Each structure stands twice: as structure tokens, then as C-alpha cells.
Task: structure prediction
Amino acid sequence: MLVAHILNEKGRDVVSIRPEATLQDAAAVLTRHRIGALIVRGEAGALMGIISERDIVRAIAELGQAGLALPVSTRMTANVAVCDESGTIAEIMETMTRFRFRHLPVVRDGKVCGIISIGDVVKSRIYETIREAEALKEYIATA
Result:
């Protein structure tokens, strides 16, 4: 299965935040949308980074409540790994495992067109496994 198939099924909405927003703002947006990461975009809408729940928790662990006043730009990952819509689930799983992150922006023509989470990957693999098992059962039943 390809990244494009997952995006077509789940949708291509991308929730983003500005780099000057605070970690408190980011936490509120994450909570409101019930997601685990936000794309950080600059003035022209370009991808500047990604900020996750983990980044916010680490800031709080290090600085306490004061960490929530920090700008997103100070805690975001600026060197963001991305994929394109033609990527396979196996490639995405390998990238997420190697770099130990759970969200991967999808880029088309230099612009973010979606985001894939580890939950999306797991859901996709479960669906594929069920489909394969059903196909095998059907094959055996008709043989």
C-alpha cells in the first residue's frame, strides 16, 4: 500500500502552527484536534519544522511550567524527515523506526499535503493482513 492510499482514506488535513506561538498554544491545538504533532509553518506557509507532544513534555520536564511559555521554534524539530505520496508502508515504517518518530509529513511539489502517523501505518497493516487472510481463506475454500 502507498502513502497516497492512506491519505485518500484518512484525509489530507494538516494542522499547523506558527514558530512564534508558545508551547502552551501548541498543546491547546494538539488537544483540540486530538492529534500528536503539528507542522510548523513560516510566513509563506513553508515547512519550518514539526512539534510533537513529546517535545512539549520534555520542555516541561526540564523547565516546569515555564517551559510552556517557550516559542515553538525553540523545541521543534527543524530538520524534518518527509516522504512523498508514492512511498510504501514498508518504507514509512523503516523511516519511523530508524529515526524514532511517530509522524511523517507528506510533501508534494515542495508543499506539505498530508501527514502520516504511526497509528495510520498500523491501521493500514492490520487492514492489509485481514485482506490477505480473507483472500487465502477464499482460495482454499474454492480449491
Observations:
- The radius of gyration is 18 Å.
- The first strand starts at residue 16 and ends at 17.
